[in-house]
Design goal:
Number of domains: 2
Structural class: alpha+beta
Number of strands: 17
CATH architecture of the largest domain: 2-Layer Sandwich
CATH superfamily of the largest domain: Histidine kinase-like ATPase, C-terminal domain
Strand order of the largest sheet: 5-4-3-6-2-1-7-8
CATH topology of the largest domain: Heat Shock Protein 90
Helix content: 25-40%
CATH class of the largest domain: Alpha Beta
Low-confidence stretches: 80-91, 335-346
Distance between the termini: 83 Å
Number of helices: 10
Radius of gyration: 23 Å
Length: 346
């Protein structure tokens, strides 16, 4: 009886793995921006057409790659960020799994142009559906440009699950905003369908970046957060209780400079508002957490948006206390005693 079990072809395995890394166009934008930041970019330009379905182009002025590295970067698990499993403890780079570029290249028309300092010419790499079509020299400045066309063209079932152009465009903007807030000293530009959507210069602080990215209406309604308990530190900005509304809330969390998502920590922060906001109101949060590298695991999912804490109870309690401590002075000042001895609200 012949065997019914066989090893999948590399092309099939790559497309299956791509499903975890590349959920939608915003996932591609996020991964390419993170690669640019790991390369030391000071300015990143993102261009998107049709919500990212037809075109995504990310250009940076980072260190670039030599030809051998450019060819190697589309191989699965090829990375310059780690060499041993112990390097995962406290890893400081955004990328480290060596999965993003090969995953993207396996489900799109993919082009990469790059040049490193000291090279007399750059490299242009063209890949279609995971197959390398050409590697050739190109004249260009130091840095890297990645072009992704026709995302999911060879996986039509995945393409059908994409949402409307407007919804995918909003997700791209959110992806850019999250990283731009995490790295205020880097300039970001986002162009969608030839229209400028985000254009922020390098900033000196998160406060300045919030103002330039989201506008003075948002920045003007925030109060600063500074909290420390042992080796846990929380800083950033939260919305004044009086400014909170049931909708339109923005919640951005960062850990050791990395954007991440955690609904439980958002709820913990909201618990710090208890009694200060009306039921149903959801205040905006921009909170950056710093913890020792051995207290956190960022290798939870290929998307790297989820993290695991060694002492989650401590982190949740610190988020609640950080918010409560920040709004206490405001709460104390909301009512003053008049000559009649009655409280007056402001």
């Amino acid at each position: 009886m012949s065997s019914r079990i066989a090893i999948l072809a590399d092309s099939v395995a790559d497309q299956i793995a791509a499903g975890e890394v590349v959920e939608r166009p915003a996932s591609v934008v996020k991964e390419l921006i993170e690669n640019a930041l790991d390369a030391g970019a000071s300015k990143i330009v993102v261009e998107v057409e049709s919500g990212g379905r037809s075109l995504i182009r990310v250009s940076d002025d980072g260190s670039g790659m030599a030809r051998a590295d450019a060819v190697m970067c589309i191989e699965r698990h090829a990375t310059s960020k780690i060499t041993d499993v112990s390097d995962l403890i406290g890893v400081g780079s955004y990328g480290f799994r060596g999965e993003a570029l090969p995953a993207i290249a396996s489900i799109a028309k993919f082009e990469l142009e790059t040049a490193a300092d000291g090279d007399h010419e750059g490299t242009r790499l063209v890949v279609n559906g995971g197959r390398v079509d050409s590697v050739e020299p190109v004249a260009r400045q130091i840095g890297t440009t990645v072009v992704v066309k026709r995302l999911f063209y060879n996986t039509p079932a995945r393409r059908k699950f994409l949402k409307s152009k407007a919804a995918e465009s909003r997700a791209v903007v959110e992806a850019v905003n999250a990283v731009a807030l995490a790295r205020p000293r880097v300039a970001f530009k986002l162009i969608m369908d030839e229209r400028g959507v985000v254009d922020v210069p390098a900033s000196r602080s998160m406060e300045e970046r919030i103002d330039s990215l989201l506008g003075p209406d948002v920045a003007g309604g925030l109060i600063a957060v500074q909290y420390a308990e042992g080796e846990v530190k929380i800083s950033g900005y939260i919305q004044r209780p009086a400014e909170a509304r049931p909708s339109g809330r923005k919640a951005y969390l960062f850990v050791n400079g990395r954007p991440f998502r955690d609904s439980f920590l958002v709820r913990a922060a909201e618990a710090g508002y208890r009694g200060a906001v009306a039921p149903g109101d959801r205040p905006s949060l921009f909170l950056a957490l710093e913890v020792p590298g051995d207290q956190i695991d960022v290798n939870v999912h290929p998307s790297k948006l989820a993290v695991r804490f060694r002492d989650r109870f401590l982190i949740e309690r610190c988020f609640e206390e950080a918010v409560r401590n920040a709004i206490n002075p405001i709460q104390s000042a909301t009512a003053i005693t008049t000559g009649t001895g009655k409280g007056r609200s402001f």
